[in-house]
Queue: 2 jobs
Job 1
Amino acid sequence: MVRKLASIAAILFTTLIFLVGNGLLGTLIPVRAHLEGFSTVTIGVIGSAYYAGFLIGCFSGPRWLARVGHIRTFSVCAGICAAATLGQSIVVNQISWVLLRGLFGFAAANIYITLESWLNDRAGNETRGVIFSSYLGVNFAGLMIGQLLFATAKPSTFVLFSMACIFYAMCLVPVGLTDLKQPAPAPVPKLRPFRLFKISPVGVAGCIAVGLANNAVWALAPVYAQAEGLTSGGVALFMVAFTLGGMLVQVPVGRLSDRIDRRWVIAGTCALAAVAGVLIALLGGRGDVHVMLITIGIFGVFMLPLYALSVAHANDRIPRQSFVEASATLLLINSIASVIGQTFAAAVMDRFGAPALFFFTAAVHTGMLVFTLFRLSRRGAAPVKDRFTPLPPQSSARELDPRKAGPKADEAS
């Protein structure tokens, strides 16, 4: 097993370096925008632009891979990420930041597709779980390291942007030096969201809820923490607590969903996420840093598993050969909801104050809870076809198909 992981060490190390940059930049951009006097709505639009670019990138990614291969696609897109990040430190205005974040999202989608399809190609039946669990751990570790690095310099300077650029440049090194064989191009799946909704209403609704609420938190929680008076170090710890909470429960919650109807687990996590959101909104204003860290950590525990649970539930109801199509369709739905959700959540914060972000997420999770309970009353449980596979918080989910198996995968491993 150690030999198997060593064979993909370059991909995992590249992922770690890239996610460190993302963790740093994801915290830095909303905080810096707030310091520059951007309105909360504008910050939300900047976050939405990332997902708009991400959505376009997911359509172009498979075509780029087929044309120039994995290493060239990754190299070009890592360069775009570095250039877009550096551009934000040079030209600080609202329009340029919207455009640059959209460009960054486009490149990031291509990078995720490259890395995840490469891992999927290297994974055989006996190693798939270990490989993708390692990938999940690398994702969370990279995000948390980047979030902690936010506290190492003043967000009002160019230093943190430059630091993120260094990570985007350095992530090219492991991929550039690897001798791993590049995978063969995969066919582009058809996207049929209405068909998928008929098959798995709860799976589709869960991805919509994640796009509206979860991704809004990733973009706007640093603004909330800053508005509550936290220092740069406090903002970093706030985001780390949120990420760590989600990391710790991905596998236990997923294993529970393998034993009972996944919809009950989805309903339970949504109910608890709604309660946690209300608690943060009510208690955060008291200025107790420890209370804020505990509540946001609990919030991450209940909020972050929803995407993987929704994808797993959708896959329970579709044929095995449709897994990639379903994941791509769910990504499309999630990305569209993210574009809408971040702008709307920012408008709510602008109108009612920073704590309203968590009232908004509580409303979304309550709506998801009600819909899930309604579906439970109308339809029986689906048979669990495969064990739950946790998904990272930032992923293309298009080429990441941990249930795919076959002779090619076995031979590649």
Job 2
Amino acid sequence: MAGPLQLTFVNYKKDSYIVVEGKTGADRFFIIRQGKVRISKDLEVVEEEGGNVLGPGDFFGVVSTMSSHSQIETAQALTDVTLISVMKEQYGQLIQNNTSVAMKIILQFSKRMRYLDEALTKLTLKNNALENPSHLFKVAEYYTRQSQYNQAFYAYHQYIKYCPGGEFVNQARERMMKIGPYAKAVKLDYRPDEFNRTYPKESMIFSEGEPGDELFIIQKGSVKIAKIVDNNEVLLAVLKTGDIFGEMALLESKPRAACAVAYEDCHVMAVNKVNFERMVGTQPQIVSRLTTLLAERIWFIYKQLANTLIVDPMGRMYDALLIQLEKNRAPINAAPYSFDFGPKELVNMVGIPQQEGVLVLRKLMENRKIQIVKDKDKDRIYSMDVSDIAKQTEFYRKMQKIEKARREGIGH
């Protein structure tokens, strides 16, 4: 049983800084009891939905605390404020004692995720695929061309189900007849009350573009999350036992943004909206895990958005490398580090056209502390001194600030 929750009240005078962007080691977040707090960022990428001024009942510092990453924003007291300080290890107890606060945090997180995701999409135009059921036909066609008939059969089936009057329905039916004999591991429909599900290897759990109202928790096995971009399958993640996926469709009632495929035989638990709200009060460890997962994703999207604002492409490359180091919690010291991607992926990460990317890479390789190494027929970027990447990033960020100040000076 959860004991009484000992929360601390803290007071800050007007104009005091409560959290500072870039600081590491966040171990608590704050809920405002009285007063107003302004949130700001070094690089203001997009205006926060709902504005940058927070009042009673609002919270801040949750993303950095729950993801154990550096602070992504600065919080300053606009008036004298009284805050409730919640230590990271108290979060599970807070969920049990105050379900409505936990639901508020999770729903605001998912809203923020959607908002930031859309901002990133607009800025990079990397994903201009429409996430609606008609997209299912394109997904099915892609997998047919790759002779991945389980995934194709599933996507055709869902296309017919959700777009019964769609222009490609007859084609989808014909294709299903053709590939049916080769589509062995296909699970098409489960009853809503079947919460424990088994998926054979290579079967599709859901496809990008289809509506969804469940999240999944992996009980055993692993699941591949992928997206079809520019006629290529982009691997986003391989998830393992204990991981949660599909939460955005459940929380935001949005179509699926990616495909989930059983990477090996797997057992999952499906959670719908009604069960989810019940779970918030009874299974704090799962809700805590979900909050951490959303915090991780928000932190990463913020960093990607800030990266798009760095004008110098070389600065963007160094910054992208530093983001990956922070994401993987590599200590920023003079030690070597091998990234799990190569130069081509780095160019894609920062959204530079390939031709320009080749020139910038050439310049990057003039830094003797960065090399490209071959590993199992795959090129990897290798840094002989991680601290140098942090120094270089800091240099380019400083130059950006000086240039911005100079431009603003000219404008006055």
